[in-house]
Every structure is written in structure tokens, then in C-alpha cells.
Amino acid sequence: MGTVTMAQALNAGLRDSLTEDDRVLVFGEDVGRLGGVFRITDGLRDEFGEQRCFDTPLAESGLVGFAVGLAMGGFRPVVELQFDAFAYPAFEQIASHVAKMRNRTRGRVPLPMVIRVPYGGGIGGVEHHSDSSEAYYAHTPGLKVVTPATAEDAYWLLRDAVRDPDPVVFLEPKKLYWSKEDAGLARRGAAPTGRAVIRRPGLDATLLAYGPSVPVAIDAAVEAARDGIDVEVVDLRTLVPFDDETVTASVRRTGRCVVVQEAHGFAGVGAEIVARVQERCFHSLAAPVIRVAGFDVPYPPPKLEHAYLPGVDRVLDAIHRLQFDDQPDVRHLAREAS
Amino acid sequence: MSITADGYLNGTRPAPDELLPSAVPVRFVTEEGTAADAPSEYAASSDDRLGEAYRRMVVARRFDQQASALTRQGRLAVYPSSRGQEACQVAGALALRQQDWLFPTYRDTAAVVSRGVDPVEVLTLLRGDWHCGYDPVATRVAPLCTPLATQLLHAVGMADALRRRGEDAVVMAFVGDGGTSEGDFHEALNFAAVFGAPVVFLIQNNQYAISVPLAEQTAAPALAYKGVGYGVRSEQVDGNDLVAVLAVLDEAVEHARSGHGPFLVEAHTYRLDGHTNADDPGRYRDEEEVRRWAAADPLPRLQAWLRTRGTLTDQDIDAAQAEAEALAADLRARIELDGPPDVLEMFDHVYTHPTPQLNEQRRSLETEVEGTEA
Ligand SMILES: Cc1ncc(C[n+]2csc(CCOP(=O)(O)OP(=O)(O)O)c2C)c(N)n1
Q1: Beta-carbon separation of B157 and A69 below 8 A
Q2: Could you read off the pLDDT of B224-233 as tens digits, one per residue?
Q3: Are residues B191 and B332 both part of a single domain?
Q4: B369 and B221 co-located in one domain
Q5: What is the pLDDT of residues B14-23, one digit of tens each?
Q6: Mean of the pLDDT values across residues B267-287?
């Protein structure tokens, strides 16, 4: 066991996928010579040659549409879209073709392909470099949407995504790219794609988080323990398909739930999760389910992002609003009235 | 001879002067069915092959009429007619070999039928039963594509896939004049040229994108010039002259097949009917214009040409007509034979393995359906 970053884990995941299956092709903008702006494809062109790992012209719709044709033609493309907000030109291809090809052809043309997107903020990026775009993809039937929070998961979820018979949007929390972890990648994680994992067991409340919000949730749980509240942290890992089973079981056990996401709250993935939890766990709930999310503003400039990003304090605040003392949430009500 | 990593024969991309289209559309046969001054770099097909093309055009015309009639009877949800564009539809199909792929738009049903796909399955989309009725892998025809120009990128990807697998096959992709304004058209030309993909783009310039005339779509001298800036060899052709369209497409397919990269063809033609059955073309074009183009109809033109050459007999004409009638009768008989689709099928193909959520929703609809049936 050594130390590994998520970036290294992803690089290893791509390398091992390329080795395992000749049909795998890795391409995108600057992924060849440069190894990607985040160096996720570092060394792959040298190792596998320019036929397997290559740069494309600068056109996101182009490279995703091109990948669709390659997948139809028997290859397994893994494309990198350089940044979350620069994936938008590809959205028509993703929503109208990547997501639908299998369905419109009655299962005759599956599209095994992976679209990797570095997403989220927290790295001091100027505008258009910090969007949390998961809701767009999660809202589109036909796509699987995966987002790791640890290096080990990043490796295995990516390996799974490349082997998946269906298209996977693979969202990489860019602020976790360089976070170090004491873990080997040879060890298989507890659960595969489609299964959430309990990162920290607890009895009093469930914190649901994914991608960049998982470390925040864990830190908040550690803090809450000091206040005597035993918080369970669930890392969703896969947004589609959603693991209702793990989530429901946890909330039924704890009776209280907070959902954390970095994306804007309105109509976000967290809203969907809250709806699912209250539909399935209503009689187990001792308090309303609360969301902690980014504000409904365009992602702010770097000097303001600390105030935008849901941090430990905001999560703790939400935990404390879970009516442990059977008192109405006066503070919150007062805030709303003002 | 060797095809290099970038897809080009011996690594050579076309030189600038090789890219330019002819100043006027290539033409072999005049509107009266007589010989035109054809440029020598294209070779007309044998009379046998042109006879085959004639037969297919008669069938395509009848198929189109039958589909329009079915639409008026409410048996198709919508139908975009290609009446008047048969030279392009048939030449496109005829220029391809079995191992090649076709990427059509919603308007190209006649081309898909001409390629040999079951007409009932071709109309599944427009009947409203499912999105694509035929098997794209078995037929080597991609689904009829509605989001404009998006299929061109798939065609380039497929062409690149065929090249990578060392298959002796090319891809032909259709697009309309309006579609050439979409970003994906330009991205597809660029990708195809950079990767040297064996793909032929056929623009059917039928003068209108729904109601918008070509002059408001582009200021280019001709759509064929749009290939030049990308390094794609380009040509323009009289799209109502089957002899010319086929000659140019044959050359384009051979160009792509032999490792010279992509080829763009603009065919000048005209849609004689409305955009779809729901359209009212009187709002944007006048009768006089339609009459002029009707006089340039590709079908009588080819007939006259082959008659003059003495290679098309009355018997051939009757046989083609009989074949067309048989296809129409078969279409009428079979179009609704299989009944409405199973509502539960909508859950079956979203993913290879349905998600727990889809299984849940399927069960709930199943209960609902059983409730109504009980
Ligand atoms: C991306 C996109 N935008 C708009 C439409 C709606 N639409 C359908 S057909 C059409 C006109 C297309 O004209 P053209 O490309 O010339 O092809 P034609 O219909 O004449 O064959 C439009 C605007 C569409 N299908 N896709």
C-alpha cells in the first residue's frame, strides 16, 4: 500500500482499460502529447501509440458525435471533455444520441462509451471552470452518471464504466484530483457501480453526499460527534442508477437526513434525493429532510467561492436543525420570516 | 500503396487545387433528356446500371406516393416526402456496396428502401410505432436522423472505425441544405478531413429548409465550396440528373475507399411536395417556381435519355411500374399488420440492464394496464 492521488488512480484506470481491451480508445482535447490539462492521460500516448490515445480538433459536439460513430463501429471510446462548462456544446449529442441510441434502435445499437468530465469548483478557477453539471446528465434517461470521491473508487468505477455496455458520464471532482490517499488500487472496493457506500457508520442522522461533497460530509460528521451526534455518511458514488436501497436503509435506521451537494440547489440532484427519501421513509423520519447546496447563482469568481461552497459549518448547521430536541426549528423559522 | 495512421494514402492529403468543385454543377443529361457537355473526369455508368437506376427510381417515386397517401389516411403520423429528389435518393443507395454504411435523415426513406430495407420497417418511425424499425447493424443503415446534421459526426466516427478495422468499406451520409448551417456539419467535415475518414457527404440542396430559401441560409457561392476550407474534396452536381449524380458519387466512393479521405457532394435538386404533409408550401414559394422544377423532374429525364439510347424498352418500363405497384400493394397490406406496439416496451431498451427504478415504473404501468383491461 502506498499513497495515491485520484488523478493517478484515474490514469491507472485508463492505462489498465487500454491494456485489457484493444477496442478502448482515449481521446479529447490535449489528451495526447500533453496528457490532458489535468494530466489524467499522462503517458498514455507514448505507451499505447497515437492510434489509441489521441488529440481531436477543438469541438466538443464533434468529438462526442465522432465517439458515437466509433462505438457504433465496435470501439469503446473514452472521451475527455476538458471542463464541465465546456461540455455544453456536446449536450445535443449527449442528450439526443448518446443517451438514446440503444433505445431508439430497440437495443440493437448499444453505445459502450465513457464521457469523462472534470467538474465542480474549489480550485480557484475563473468563470466557466467550476460548474456542477450533474443534474443535466442525471435528468437524461439512458445515461449512467458516476462520480467518485476517493482514489480507489475513481479507479474501479472508471474500470467498470469502460466495461459497461451502456454510456457512462463520469464526473471527476477536480478539487479531489490531488488529494492523497493511503490506499492501493489492487484492492477491490466493497460495492460496484450502482451501489452507494457507507463511509462512516452512525446512528443519529444520515448525511448523503457525492463527489466533492463527500470529504465535507465526513469532516462535518467528525465535528458533530464532538457535539454528541453520531452521523452516518453515505457516499452515493453513482447518481444513475440510484441506490435507493442503501439510502433508504440508512435513513430508516437513523430517522434523520441531510443531503449535501455543491451544485445549485434548485431542481438539483439533491431535490430528487429528498423526494425519494420522503416517499420511502416518511414514517421513519423524525424531521424534515434538509438540503445543503450551492446558492442559485452562477458559480462565483474565485475570491467568492469560499462563501458559495457548502462547507462543514453549513452542514453542521443543517444537522443541528434536525429537531433532535423535539423543539421547532426557531432559528430557521425566524430567518425565513425576516 | 499504404494507408497511414491519419487515414490518407501514403500520408498525402489532397492539394488545394484538387479540392475545388466545378464552377457549374456537373451534368450529363439535359432537362430534355439529351446529352450535355459532361466533364471528362467523371465516368457515366453502364446502360445496364442506369437501367437498374431507372427501375429503382420508379419504385422510389411510387413508394413516396404511397407513403403520402397513407399519411392522408391517418396511417402514418407524419411523412417528409422526397418526391423530385429520386435521382439523389437512388444514386446514393446505388453507389454503395453491401459492406458500406448509409447515414440518412428523416427525408431519405426512399434511399433506405432503395438500399433494400423492408419499407414497412423504414416507416416505423413515421408511423409512430417506434423510433427505428430496422436493424442498423444488419442493414448497415443508421437510424433515420432528425436532429439536423448530428448524424454526420456519427458517420465520420463509423468511417474511422471501419478504417481502423481494416474493412474495405465507406460511409455515405446525407444532409439537407439547411443542415449545412449547423455546427455539426462543419465539425464533421473537419474531423473527417483531419482523420482522413472514408466518408462521402451528400448534400441534397432542395432549395428550402422548411420555409427558408437557400439565399437566407448561406452566402456561399454554392454549398459545395464549404468543403474546401476543411481540406475536403468537393463537387457540385445537377441533382435531378441521375447519370451525373451517380457518376460523381461513384467517384466520391472510390476516392474515399482508396484512402484519399472524405468527399463532399452538393446535389442541386428540389422538393416538389411540402416539407411534410403538415406543411403549407404556398406560404413561401410560388406555383411558377414549382412548375419550373417539375419540368426538371429526374424521372422522365432519365427515361428519355435511356429511350434515346435505345436501352429502355416499353417492356422495361412496364416491368418497373409493375414492381412499384407490387411494393405499394405490399406496403398497404402490411403497414398495420403487427398492431400497436406494446406499451411496456418503452422500459426495455433504456439500458442493457434496467435500473431498479425502471423496473418499479414498469410494474406500476403494468398494473395500470391490467386495470384498464380488466
Ligand atoms: C437541430 C435541429 N433544429 C431544428 C430542427 C427542425 N427542423 C426539421 S427539418 C428542418 C429543415 C431542414 O432543412 P434541410 O436541412 O434543408 O433539409 P430538408 O428538410 O429540406 O430535407 C428543421 C428546421 C431539427 N430537426 N433539428
Answers
A1: yes
A2: 999 999 999 9
A3: yes
A4: no
A5: 999 999 999 9
A6: 96
- Per-domain residue ranges for chain A? 2-183, 197-321
The finding on whether B146 has its CB within 6 A of some atom of ligand 1 is yes
Task: Give the pLDDT score at B353.
Answer: 96
Q: Is B122 on the interface with A (CB under 8 A)?
A: no
Put simply, the chain A residues between 263 and 322 with a CB less than 8 A from any chain B CB are none
- Give B179 Cα–ligand 1 centroid separation in angstroms: 6
The pLDDT tens digits for A200-221 are 999 999 999 999 999 999 999 9
Model confidence band, residue A192 (pLDDT cutoffs 50, 70, 90):
confident
Question: Cell for A136?
Answer: 443535466
**Looking at residue B252, which CATH number applies to its domain?**
3.40.50.970
pLDDT at A332 (0 to 100): 64
State the CB neighbour count (10 A cutoff) for residue A308: 19
Identify the CATH assignment for A2-183 out of 2.40.30.20, 1.10.600.10, 3.40.50.970, 3.90.1300.10.
3.40.50.970
Domains held by chain B: number: 2
